[in-house]
Write a structure and sequence with these properties.
This protein has 10 helices and 13 strands. The protein is an alpha/beta fold. Helix 8 crosses helix 10. The longest helix is centred in the middle third of the chain and has 16 residues. Bound molecules: adenosine-5'-diphosphate (ADP) and magnesium ion (MG).
């Protein structure tokens, strides 16, 4: 495999804010590469620097061996770009949007085929305003694919969509990759990164805190269990942190998440018994206790000390 994108030490500041802080990484041809992190982590700034839409203060970027700003004209036909803040006029019809975008390029795919593949054929005469959130995003994907690009950028494509619409988009992104394209996407959904991406860079406060396949990131946690429960009534910690094998205890409102045991630690196979006993002894009432395997969200939590989202809602 060869790198289709290489980023070397880019930094971008806005006044006092360091949006992106000395980032280096590369993206391989044919992969779905994800950049995941909370709001404000620097995802959009990074993707827009790579797209040539913003200029980094420092550092080097090469996309297919070209400089995204100085060689923008050579690069543009090879890139498919969907912007986080994409807008179309309310009254533009789906086919008109495709027709307009097609006029920007010398060579385009047949947009009728594209509509068919993206399940939008019956919406071709519908105005943008009347599309659902998911349909709008399908249209933005269609627009990003119109010039048959080699590399597709998708910035927080599924933010705000319901889980069903989000899963449809995941299928679509997989199909885009199956057509041989490289996908660079950003998301603030850890679950999305875990399910969709071959490799994930976890971004926090403008820095990459980890970069690997989701499976490796989770394995490197060296934690085998996540226990979560709801506290009912008064919370008495029961010194969960001090139990053998417990690596991390996080409380958000009534929800508590306990991570452990460290793989290979000299503790019994599960920390559930210890946790339940400690809660009972402390007199803490709880419900909805469950044990699960750790996921990318736990990787983020362990590496940064804070949670991605206040609630693990989906
Ligand atoms: N045009 C801008 N002017 C000033 N600050 C900005 C601008 N764009 C982004 N920022 C700031 O830079 C940081 C990173 O933003 P952004 O790259 O949009 O993060 P993300 O996409 O991960 O939410 C945030 O603190 C944000 O407020
Ligand atoms: Mg963003």
């Amino acid at each position: 495999m060869s790198s289709i994108i290489t980023v070397g030490g880019i930094t971008k500041t806005y006044g006092e804010t360091i949006a992106v802080n000395d980032l280096s990484f590369s993206v391989e041809e044919g992969e779905i590469f994800g950049m995941v992190g909370p709001n404000g982590a620097g995802k959009t700034t990074t993707i827009e620097c790579i797209e040539g839409l913003r200029q980094a203060d420092r550092g080097e970027i090469q996309v297919m061996g070209l400089d995204p700003i100085r060689q923008e004209r050579q690069l543009r036909p090879l890139l498919g770009i969907q912007l986080q803040q994409a807008h179309l006029p309310d009254n533009i019809k789906v086919w008109e949007a495709l027709d307009m975008y097609a006029s920007f390029y010398d060579n385009t795919l047949d947009w009728e085929d594209l509509l068919e593949e993206l399940g939008l054929m019956d919406k071709r005469g519908t105005t943008f305003r009347k599309l659902s959130g998911g349909q709008k995003q399908h249209l933005f994907i269609a627009l990003a694919l119109l010039n048959d690009p080699r590399l597709v950028f998708l910035d927080e494509l599924t933010t705000g969509l319901d889980p069903h619409a989000r899963h449809n988009i995941w299928d679509l992104v997989q199909e885009v990759r199956q057509r041989g394209k490289t996908v660079f996407l950003t998301t603030h959904y850890m679950e999305e990164a875990e399910n969709l991406c071959d490799r994930v860079a976890i971004l926090d406060q403008g820095k990459i805190v980890a970069l690997d396949t989701p499976a490796n990131l989770i394995r490197d946690l060296k934690i085998s269990e996540r226990i979560s429960f709801q506290v009912k009534g008064e919370w008495k910690s029961g010194a969960l942190e001090d139990l053998p094998g417990v690596k991390n205890v996080q409380r958000q409102g009534d929800k508590v998440v306990v991570l452990g045991p460290a793989n290979g630690a000299q503790v019994s196979a599960s920390i559930v018994t210890g946790v339940v006993n400690a809660l009972a002894e402390a007199g803490t009432q709880f419900s909805d206790l469950r044990t699960e395997y750790p996921d990318l969200e736990d990787v983020f939590l362990t590496l940064t000390g804070h949670q991605m989202r206040p609630e693990r809602s989906e």
